């Protein structure tokens, strides 16, 4: 990689860009745009999302995510009739060779647990370490973003089908 000194303007540009999308690499894995949604004031949990691509020829496994909370777990969401249930992936999440695994609302996610009165706020950056079986440990930052459905102050339109299901994690 070419090294060069950044002018102030370029540094500002890079900072602004990285707020919108950011990525990481570890071994054969590419991790794109870890983010979380802002939470309600009283929320005890928050979901973390990202895309993980395995460009190699060997499967890897996201074993754990470490961050400064009482618990951090890997979950998946399964529909049980009309009820979305979160299931703790105790063996982690496989990232098959040549595959892209997307952690997203209604599916796989990182669950930050025990927020304890310190909600996630838009613009906040949550440092975490991803622990992979083969690729090892990777420090990343989850950017906290606004919930799309809340930007205009309401849920009048129901065109985001799974948004509400994932929204509160209240039963966790
Ligand atoms: Cu969860």
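^ Assign residues to that structure.
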């Amino acid at each position: 990689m070419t090294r060069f000194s950044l002018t102030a303007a370029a540094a500002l540009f890079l900072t602004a860009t990285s707020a919108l999308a950011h990525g990481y690499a570890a071994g054969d894995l590419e991790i794109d745009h870890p983010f979380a949604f802002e939470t309600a004031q009283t929320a005890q949990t928050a979901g973390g999302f990202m895309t993980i691509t395995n460009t190699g020829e060997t499967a890897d496994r996201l074993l754990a995510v470490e961050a400064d909370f009482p618990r951090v777990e890997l979950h998946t969401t399964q529909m049980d009739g009309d009820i979305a249930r979160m299931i703790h992936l105790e063996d982690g999440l496989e990232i098959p060779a040549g595959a892209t695994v997307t952690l997203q609302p209604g599916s796989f996610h990182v669950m930050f647990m025990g927020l304890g009165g310190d909600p996630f706020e838009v613009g906040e950056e949550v440092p975490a370490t991803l622990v992979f079986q083969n690729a090892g440990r990777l420090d990343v930052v989850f950017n906290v973003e606004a919930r799309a459905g809340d930007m205009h102050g309401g849920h009048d339109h129901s065109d985001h089908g799974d948004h509400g299901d994932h929204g509160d994690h209240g039963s966790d």
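The radius of gyration is 17 Å.
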